[in-house]
Amino acid sequence: MDLHPLTDGTAQGGAAAEPDPATRRGKPAPHASGPTFLEQLVAEGLMIPTGVPGLYGRNTTFESICEGMNNVMTHLGRGLGAETLHFPPAMGQADFETSGYMKSFPQLAGTVHSFCGDDKGHRRLLARLEDKSDWTDQQQPTGVVLTPAACYPVYPVIARRGPLPEGGKVVDVMSYCFRHESSLEPTRMQLFRQREYVCLGTPQRIAAFREQWLERVPELATALQLPVEIDVANDPFFGRGGKLVAESQREFRLKFELLIPINDGAPPSACMSFNYHMDHFGHMWDLRSADGATAHTGCVGIGVERMALALLRHHGLDPARWPQTVRDTLWGG
Amino acid sequence: MDLHPLTDGTAQGGAAAEPDPATRRGKPAPHASGPTFLEQLVAEGLMIPTGVPGLYGRNTTFESICEGMNNVMTHLGRGLGAETLHFPPAMGQADFETSGYMKSFPQLAGTVHSFCGDDKGHRRLLARLEDKSDWTDQQQPTGVVLTPAACYPVYPVIARRGPLPEGGKVVDVMSYCFRHESSLEPTRMQLFRQREYVCLGTPQRIAAFREQWLERVPELATALQLPVEIDVANDPFFGRGGKLVAESQREFRLKFELLIPINDGAPPSACMSFNYHMDHFGHMWDLRSADGATAHTGCVGIGVERMALALLRHHGLDPARWPQTVRDTLWGG
After folding, report:
1. Residue A29 — very low, low, confident or very high, per pLDDT cuts 50/70/90?
2. Residue B239: which of A110, A119, A129 has the nearest Cβ?
3. Average pLDDT of chain A to the nearest whole number
4. Which of A58, A144, A238 comes nearest B86 by C-beta?
5. Residue A301: other Cβ atoms inside 10 A
6. What are the Cα distances from residue B22, in Å, to A185, B1, B231, B324?
7. What is the pLDDT, as a whole number, of residue B19?
8. Structural element, H or E, at residue B267
């Protein structure tokens, strides 16, 4: 693999990397009358419909591409001294509430509910099932909430350890995430994996971390032979108030996205993002730097399935026939 | 690794394997006044509390044991000609309803709910969050249900393909599963992984498949140096009616479990199970054998985290110091 791992610490930030103009454009042609990209993926057996838009099974070929992208991320993060943590795809409701997610993205979150009734309630439930009517009215919240982004379970765990070490900290995490978005675009799954590096420390530490990654992106795009753009972005904050937050996120250049054309005749999809949360999570969880100041946080992450879809879109549905350098980047040369 | 892979097809069933008397007993001593097993796992950093019983983060050591157990299962299944499928940790509500799970285990299932309201509803939600009162009353079911067992998403996908091939079929699947069980026993997680082989075909095919696995268990126990028992078992079917179903499951010897002592002074935990569903799923999803008869199904699966906990319990909290043969079995010799 040609990509150089990032190194910990002292890299100085510069301007955001300019995407290589040579790979800047490459929007896939609209499917016109032929099968859609999703239909092609399904016909090839790469994605397996489950009857619910955004929930798909996958075959081993698709999964091996996901593994390859994880290899790339592991390789890139090798110099960062990251601690790897693993979490199930859900978190406790108290930590979830603390994150402030319901303020910003209530429409996307998923709470987990269970039947907590007795024999009589169960008979009523079964009668409704029998009648094909709604049986979920007896479901009660369990205090478990699906993970909205891979980094969310990280902050409370690190906060409970006390102040950060001198020089801050980097955590490597991958998790299934849930977003309540029903869509026929293969890139918009309801359950998908994010692989993230989370940086916690001083504002300077986070800025340097983000710049390192932004500088590395053109190299990544070249190695994977993908047409990419990097753009300032904003999240889909909820409601009228959310519009102001989104504008401010854009204005202060807090979020950058790596965009790759994937879907038929649609704008390019965000496949990787760079987020600077300032002291939002630091305040919420009372995260402290070694000097006692409220810590700042940032993260860089890929949508694992989206990166796999980008590769399938641009190099074809059979990875055995992909350019050898791309294969080497994903699976070792 | 010394274990021989299973082979596809024509193995003839015999009696259920008798566990080796030499490894039959080995219940861990109760913790008396010392730290509990869970406390030891947490102190060692292997499991990371999240504030919710049954939801834990894990470090890389714990995960490498899980990977090792998956290696063992991959190796054992190598001769079976299995098709590997991957699923996210949830399935569509229609398929979930078809499975009949809400009839048998309504108390364990988890449905996913989201906020679908407008700005006004959102303001009400935020006011409740602010007051620390219940804000989940506006959550609506999304049609997504957490996977209750790794094999559940398999049946509808295979059924949609039409009749099974001649000789039936084996599917290899691993998934996160949810069960609404709050417990301080580390073996009883709310989200955990199951690695399963699912066999679909004639009753003879399923019987042969199960016997092959049951015969291989003493060899597995020896290779991992774990004290095990195999016992006829029954599931925790819900309610008064459920008791009859459980008794019948026991009487017809439809389920066997591999039991290993893990928790402090508690009965041994089921770490692997062998289930014969007869034609239950075949009927539910109209699964057909090649000759048009309703297919029978069975599965064998491990609880990935439970097997990891069994190894940690019996060989100590530092895998670097485990017996070399155990290490070779898990990570290749």
Report:
1. low
2. A119
3. 91
4. A58
5. 24
6. 57, 22, 16, 20
7. 39
8. none
pLDDT, position A329: 97
Contact present, A269 and A187 (Cβ < 8 Å): yes
Say how far apart CA B234 and CA B229 lie, in whole Å. Answer: 15
Q: How far apart are CA B146 and CA B129, in angstroms?
A: 25
The pLDDT tens digits for A71-116 are: 999 999 999 999 999 999 999 999 999 999 999 999 999 999 999 9
Q: What is the mean pLDDT of residues A268-289?
A: 96
User: What is A142-177 written as a DSSP string?
Assistant: EEEEE-SSTTTTHHHHHHTT-SPPTT-EEEEEEEEE
Output the pLDDT for position B8. Answer: 66
Q: Distance (Å, rounded) from C-alpha B144 to C-alpha A230?
A: 33
User: Which residues of chain A from 27 to 86 reach within 8 Å of chain B, CB to CB?
Assistant: 48, 50-52, 55-60, 62-63, 84-86
Domains of chain B, each with CATH number or no CATH: 21-99+148-331 (3.30.930.10), 111-146 (no CATH)
Q: Taking CB atoms and an 8 Å limit, are A180 and B142 in contact across chains?
A: yes
Of A114, A51, A118, nearest to B112 by C-alpha is A114
Q: Does A180 touch chain B (CB under 8 A)?
A: yes
Residue B13, pLDDT > 70, answer no
For residue A80, the distance in angstroms to the closest alpha carbon of chain B comes to 16
Decide if B51 and A94 are in contact by the 8 Å CB cutoff: yes
Q: Examine the predicted complex and report whether its ipTM is higher than 0.90.
A: yes
Interchain contact, B114 vs A109, CB within 8 Å: yes
Rounded distance between C-alpha atoms, residue B230 and residue B221, angstroms: 11
Is B78 strand, coil or helix?
coil
Q: pLDDT tens digits, residue range A138-158?
A: 999 999 999 999 999 999 999
Interface check B119 vs A, CB under 8 A: yes
- Is residue A45 scored above 50 in pLDDT? yes
Closest CA to B193 of B172, B180, B171, B178: B178
Do B89 and B161 touch, CB atoms closer than 8 A? no
Among B19, B24, B36, B26, which residue's Cα sits nearest to residue B263? Answer: B36
Buried b (16+ CB within 10 A) or exposed e, B128-140: bbeeeeebbebbe
Q: Is A15 exposed, middle or buried (0-12, 13-18, 19+ CB in 10 A)?
A: exposed
Task: Say which of B55, B89, B189 has its CB closest to residue A191.
Answer: B89
* B50, B62, B240 ranked by CB distance to A91: nearest: B50
Instruction: For residue B14, give how far its alpha carbon lies from the nearest alpha carbon of chain A (Å).
Output: 34
B148 reaches A (C-beta below 8 A)? no
Which pLDDT does position B31 carry in this prediction? Answer: 58
Partners of B191 on chain A (C-beta within 8 Å) are 88-90, 144
Residue B141: HSE in the Cβ half-sphere, 13 Å Cα cutoff: 18
Q: Is the minimum CB–CB distance between A127 and chain B shorter than 8 Å?
A: no
